[in-house]
Amino acid sequence: MIISRSLTGLLATIVLFGAQPLSAETAEEKGRAIAEEVDRRDLGWGDSQTSMTMTLTNKQGDSSERSLRLTSLETTAAGLGDKSLTIFDSPRDVEGTAFLSHTKILEQDDQWLFLPALKRVKRISSANKSGPFVGSEFAYEDLLSQEVDKYDYKYLEDKECAGELNCFVIERYPRYENSGYTKTIVWIDMDEYRPMKIEFYDRRDSLLKTLTLSSYEKYLDQYWRAHRQEMVNHQSGKATVLEFQPYEFQVGLDDGDFVSSKLKRVR
Amino acid sequence: MRCRLPPLALIGILTNTGADAGEWNTQFSIAPELRVFPVSTDRTNEDTLSPSITLSGEFYYDTDRGDDRFVISPLLRLDADDDNRTLVDLTEAHWLRFGDGWDFLAGMNKVFWGVTESVHLVDIINQSDFAADIDGEDKLGQPMLNGTFYGDWGTLGIFAMTGFRERVFPDEDARLSAPLPLRESASEYDSGAERLAPEFAIRYSQFFGEIDLGISHFYGTSREPRLIPTLRPSGIELVPRYDTINQTGLDVQLTRDATLYKLEAISRFGHGDWFAAFVGGFEHTLYQIFESDADLGLLAEYQFDDRDDTAPITVADNDLFLGTRLTLNDVQDTALLAGTVIDTVNGSTRAIIEVERRIGDDWKAELESRLFFIANDDDPTQTLRDDDLITLRLTRYF
Fold it and tell me: Distance (Å, rounded) from C-alpha A155 to C-alpha A240?
């Protein structure tokens, strides 16, 4: 019964697409399908908040720390990405500085900065995708929401990853403007569709950075979040580690909590 | 410094929430400063090195339910040479209630409106402290009741104020002072209620895609006084006169790719003749110049003001600001701003250079320089020709 149904399907495929075999999914289609599955499994989280420490280390091993609070709102409307609010708690001289971002898939994001000393809200350009975020090895584009349609994809291979897991390895090519990368190579674990490692290739197509995501925790029985992210810059020898506190999900935030005129009330 | 401290007894009484385990947050900084005036003058005060120290803090308490917040931000500055630079102020001391789609604030607060960099025409709520810095960006706290309403349609802020603060100028025998003695104690007002005159303001703001827009109106005592030369027993002195004004303001920014286009415009009645003023220009940023992490911003703004001599004097009447901002995007957040304002009529030029860099995690070093190149004795800044200034400031944050 099962066999005959498959045979009917195969026959139908041959009729529709000529003599091509069933496995004709291209590497591009397979790569995108994997990214879509990653996205599908992370749908519906609503809103979240957490805090993190960012540790910057240079080639000589000197390090400095920043602490930030992150608030995020999932947006499902077409063409739009998520909204996020980042508040600095340290270093002390930038304490209270807040960064609001309304991400979009391919258009320019809307971004505002609140400067607490002057009580001033500034709309800022979001063209700076590839610049370093507060002196770290993370570029702005590494931290903004990773929407499916921001990239073209290509599946490369299956490979062992993170010790005992099996991963899909796919290439992503940024479709948005001003990216600092020609491509990124992403390792996604086959069981849970979590990104485990990302390699970033610079504009000359040479390996620039590697991001390793670990200490994954599952929330609301569905949503995985990496509590440690380590970015190593192979060209400069510098590294940045993000360590996240536990997330709180569905705390009741809405669009009204992510408007620029409320930045002056952010503490 | 975000830290959990037991709520102060006072706040506990105010909020009547003895069992409420809210959160106190404290920030505190100490900033010794040295102002260097390289050119000696024949004015009363010959000091070329002028030290001061500023202590400032922000203390706030959020109730556990998050409905109320109490904020106190005191400032204390002690200056060795300029009595008017010695100041105690509460830039913020208020209660804030958060509602659904609105909030309400009662007390002292600091509010900024506007988009441009070289002059702030629309910004009018707080009084400027010109003794602290002649750029006028240091502000005094303003007592107010402020309701703000938020919606899909934008944001509407309504302000009712009283308790006017007089403008702070450098002391008459200090550097950067006016050419004649200022007699603040003899200040005159349009309003019989003087500093207790009621004031109102309203501001609507919204963003439409690439455009951020603000429209505002202010009725009350002008933050800018006219300085009236008056014959007094001690000779000719300048007496500040504070007129009651109506000022309508517009601020717009268009943000397109790496360029910000900015415009501020005001219309003001109340001094003598009606006048209008605007400042407009752009800021374009070149990201990651020379394949480094550094960004280079290029700024240009044109300042126009058609006020006549029945209004307070302004330097920003027909001037061009050109500036550049270099941010290294390094771990220490090193940044440099250099700019010049050129009077397009008489050629007089003011230049500013500001450099800042964090040291370690808790210190910041700043260098600021203001230079005056006076081309014409009619220029309002001509009395500052020998007051070129370099300020060194080291701030320790706690």
Answer: 28
